[in-house]
């Protein structure tokens, strides 16, 4: 095993956090801003990248950090290490309401592909890199950018997503079509592509976007019911504009719409 072996416990319902149990000299890596609390005896240090290339010298460290720049993440990650005797605990929290999904990469063919902002934390030794799309259409229209994130190794990793998360197990040749924003991640055996919704009325008035993700089995797919982008758009649509009135949700009638729905203050 190249990754540290860690135990964990997920707490909470809508706003979850994961508590990691570390034996002496065990470590866990995490994204900046996800730390919640830790026992005395755990040291915190900042490293380039994910720490998986530390034994490869300066070039390994730079390459590990450079991969994260391409996904829009920070050059640095934080490592939490138990430097004392006995078991210690450190906890990491979700950044918004949703669920935390534990992934044993040793049982997922050593690789899991996910949204670039889904990663929360992992055992030290897990590599957090980039998954290049071979088709330009995925990058231009996929909704998650040209590059997705990949988690590789044989340890535990944890991803988070909004709302309720469901896991679909696809049989060989079985196809599942998903809103691009609702796609959390999938195992490497799943074939992923972008398809046009089709139809003029669907494209102009459907309100569901022009493209969706098409996933073909075999493999497992994780889907979220409330992408953070969708939640943010709903909040912004109801934010007061000049004059104290909300913008409403997609109305093309403007002030007339306010009269029709009774908002004529």
Task: Please give the structural blueprint.
Elements: E1 7-11, E2 17-22, E3 27-30, E4 35-38, E5 42-48, H1 57-70, E6 76-82, E7 88-93, E8 98-104, E9 111-114, E10 119-123, E11 127-132, H2 136-141, E12 147-152, E13 156-162, E14 165-170, E15 175-179, E16 183-187, E17 191-196, H3 200-205, E18 211-216, E19 219-224, H4 228-237, H5 255-260
Antiparallel strand pairs: 1-2, 2-7, 3-6, 3-10, 4-7, 5-6, 8-13, 9-12, 9-16, 10-13, 11-12, 14-19, 15-18, 16-19, 17-18
Summarize the structure.
By secondary structure, the chain is an alpha+beta fold.
Describe the structure in your own words:
With 265 residues, the chain is of the alpha+beta class. The chain has a single domain, classed as Double-stranded beta-helix (4-Layer Sandwich). The strands form 4 sheets. It has a 6-stranded antiparallel beta sheet. Strands 11-12-9-16-19-14 form a 6-stranded antiparallel beta sheet. It has a 4-stranded antiparallel beta sheet with strand order 1-2-7-4, with no helix packed on it. It is globular, with a radius of gyration of 21 Å.
């Amino acid at each position: 095993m190249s990754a540290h072996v860690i135990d964990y416990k997920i707490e909470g319902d809508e706003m979850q956090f994961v508590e990691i149990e570390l034996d002496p000299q065990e470590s866990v890596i995490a994204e900046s801003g996800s730390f919640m609390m830790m026992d005395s005896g755990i040291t915190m240090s900042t490293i380039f990248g994910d720490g998986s290339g530390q034994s490869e010298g300066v070039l390994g460290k730079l390459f590990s950090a450079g991969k994260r720049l391409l996904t829009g993440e920070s050059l640095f990650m934080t490592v939490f290490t138990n430097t004392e005797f006995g078991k210690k605990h450190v906890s990491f929290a979700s950044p918004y309401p949703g669920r935390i999904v534990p992934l044993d990469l040793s049982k997922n063919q050593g690789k899991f592909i996910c949204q670039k902002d889904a990663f929360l934390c992992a055992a030290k030794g897990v590599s957090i890199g980039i998954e290049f799309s071979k088709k330009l259409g995925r990058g231009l229209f996929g909704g998650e950018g040209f590059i997705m994130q990949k988690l590789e190794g044989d340890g535990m990793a944890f991803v988070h997503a909004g709302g309720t998360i469901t896991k679909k197990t696809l049989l060989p040749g079985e196809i599942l079509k998903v809103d691009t924003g609702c796609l959390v991640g999938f195992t490497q055996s799943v074939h992923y592509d972008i398809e046009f919704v089709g139809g003029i009325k669907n494209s102009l008035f459907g309100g569901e976007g022009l493209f969706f993700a098409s996933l073909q089995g075999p493999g497992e797919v994780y889907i979220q019911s409330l992408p953070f982008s969708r939640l943010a758009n709903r909040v912004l649509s109801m934010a007061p504009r000049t004059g104290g009135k909300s913008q409403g949700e997609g109305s093309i009638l403007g002030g007339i719409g306010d009269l029709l729905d009774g908002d004529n203050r």
